[in-house]
Design a protein that fits this description.
The protein is mainly α. It has a domain of 177 residues: Hypothetical protein, domain 2 (Endonuclease III, domain 1). It contains 16 helices and 2 strands. The protein has a two-stranded antiparallel sheet. It starts with a strand and ends with a helix. It binds iron/sulfur cluster (SF4). Iron/sulfur cluster binds next to helix 16.
Length: 305
């Protein structure tokens, strides 16, 4: 059987599953060292979890080894010429000079910080990056790092100050500053001051969805748990018809790609397509005329020279 499993879960912990996390870690329900303000933040995180919708998340068991032979037998469909297309994108990306190469989320953390701080910073940079250009995320991360970007430091920082530091990332005021504060409080109280090491638990944090969780598993833990599908990967996969049927949501694109793309390319494909989308296969007016894939790409073939 394929290593993929499907589970339905709430993407933020409620009181019950937060208790489960504590029990799993051998902790009592009592959390020590809570300040009045932090208790309020934890309560708020739990409250917001009640409002969030249930979503279906398909993800890989992080403990299973890939079984490519088995996958190959079952996979019935793959897009034509995809290997050639990938080689062409590698060629077009060989200078590695796209914004994601220099200022992507994997470039934002302090490489001299303790490992758990680096992991926390990786998660925060991914939270900031949603619907925000790499350059803006990178600048916000620099300001946060100058302020001090550790769980303890953010615990003692007011939400309004976080908002001030991360401006002008998108949704800086309405959601991101709040989610950073809530997530940080949960990490301290429920995850022993580190970020969790599974897609499921990462998705339980406010403001963290499947795309972010898979990218975080790679950047923070060096575990490839799935393909990180952002707006670039989603758009380009549909233009190239790398999905059997057009997909509306990035999460559907991720499932479709994982059904045929060899696992050893799952990590590379995100970086490859994000930079390609920033430089050539642009959201509006893609540069099809100068793209090496023009004759192989259904969208490119439809564009008049
Ligand atoms: S031909 Fe155009 S749409 Fe197709 S991959 Fe190249 S830039 Fe993108």
């Amino acid at each position: 059987m394929l290593s993929r499993i499907v589970r339905v879960l709430s993407i933020v912990p409620n009181q019950n599953n937060m208790a489960t996390f504590s029990r799993r870690r051998g902790k009592t329900e009592e959390v020590s060292g809570k300040t009045e303000e932090n208790e309020k933040v934890i309560k708020s995180a739990s409250k917001s979890s009640q409002k969030r919708k249930h979503v279906v998340i398909t993800y890989d068991s992080e403990t299973e080894e890939p079984n490519d032979a088995e996958d190959a037998k079952i996979a019935k469909w793959e897009p034509k010429h995809w290997r050639e297309v990938v080689d062409n994108i590698r060629e077009m990306r060989k200078k590695k000079d796209a914004p994601v190469d220099e200022m992507g989320c994997d470039q934002c953390h302090d490489k001299d910080a303790p490992p758990e701080v680096q992991r926390y910073q990786s998660l925060i940079s991914l939270m900031l990056s949603s619907q925000t250009k790499d350059q803006i995320t990178f600048a916000a991360m620099q300001k946060l790092r100058e302020h001090g970007l550790s769980i303890d430091k953010i615990m003692e920082t007011k939400e309004s100050k976080i908002g001030e530091l991360i401006y002008p990332v998108s949704y800086w005021k309405v959601t991101k500053a709040k989610h950073i504060k809530l997530t940080t409080a949960l990490l301290k109280d429920k995850f022993e001051g580190d970020i969790p090491k599974s897609v499921k638990e990462l998705c339980s944090l406010p403001g963290v969805g499947p795309k972010m969780a898979h990218l975080c598993m790679k950047s923070a833990w060096n575990i490839v748990s799935g393909i990180g599908v952002d707006t670039h990967v989603h758009r380009i996969s549909n233009r190239l018809k790398w999905v059997k049927k057009p997909t509306k949501k990035p999460e559907d694109t991720r499932v479709a790609l994982e059904s045929w793309l060899p696992r050893d390319l799952w990590d590379e494909v995100n970086h490859l397509l994000v930079g390609f989308g920033q430089q050539t296969c642009l959201p509006v007016k893609p540069l099809c005329g100068s793209c090496l894939n023009k004759s192989l790409c259904p969208f490119g073939r439809s564009v008049k020279a």
